[in-house]
Each structure stands twice: as structure tokens, then as C-alpha cells.
Amino acid sequence: xxxxxxxxFTPYRGMKMCHMTADTLEELHAMAAKLGLSxxxxxxxxxxHYDLCAAKRREAIKLGAIPEGVMEGARRRxxxxxxxxxxxxx
Length: 90
Fold this sequence. Notes:
Number of helices: 3
Helix content: 40-55%
Strand content: 25-35%
Shape: globular
Largest sheet: 6 strands, mixed
Structural class: alpha+beta
Radius of gyration: 13 Å
């Protein structure tokens, strides 16, 4: 189980923001707590995530988050969804 930070930086209010995801919500929220994040949780998106500024991304990596490219992350999430669907059907 892991936490991931992508490299897709989007401008927001003078900052560059990226995304932090995880294999489980428990891991995601635990890392967010370590980073001191109380908002930016995006529960209603297709993939639950936190938005991170570049400085928080660097801090997350120091705390063990795995950096990944945006396409790499998309593939990982798709594979996880497909695996979960297969388990439900079994």
C-alpha cells in the first residue's frame, strides 16, 4: 500500500498544484495529516485525492510518497479499478 504524488502542475492562485492519491483512503488521510492538510480533499472526483502545492509535494516525497507521472498514475488507478471489479464478480 502506498501514497503517490503526480507531476501534473496546474496554476491556482499563484501556486502550482498537483495531486496526492493513495491505495486506500486511510493512507491518503494519514499522509494528509502528516502534511498538516485540513482541506483540499477532493472526495467527489473520479479518484479521491488532495491537491498539493509544490512545497507540500516535496514534503510528501520526503515522508515516503511515491512520485509518478500523470499518465503512470492514470494507468495505476485504472488497473486498480479493474482488479476491484474482477474481485466483485468472482
